[in-house]
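Annotated sample (chain length 151).
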Amino acid sequence: MFKYLIVALALCAVAHADDWTPKTGEEIRKIRVECLKENPLSNEQIAQLKNLIFPNEPDVRQYLTCSATKLGIFCDQMGYHADRLAKQFKMDLSEEEALQIAQSCVDDNAQKSPTDEWAFRGHQCMMASKIGDKVKAFVKAKAEEAKKKAA
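Output written by the structure step:
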């Protein structure tokens, strides 16, 4: 068991030290599809997520944890990587401002919450921040653009 922990910590450290780059929209879409297959959600939950409503439910938390892990922005040993969060979701903010926001949402899980609760807590913080506001505006604009194209 101890060896597993050491290996997991080492892998997480190596992953953090690599040449990680932000994921493209297509890569994010593929990750979400994979995580939905691994963590099926109800039609109601999917509709809520499309409207950027994230219910604090085990299925949703596990889906979000899967997505964050596969994006490379969360590790179950170290939690969120503030630098990666800032790079992935800075939108039109400076990387410095995005990093300050991300750092304010990262915690070391001192309360020893289960991984999905830990990841969800960070996600909720980010979505309640200026970055979250920009993500919501971006998604809303994309949805309106899609409606216009469909009409």
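Annotation: The two ends are 58 Å apart (CA to CA).
Annotation: Confidence is low (pLDDT under 50) at residues 1-10.
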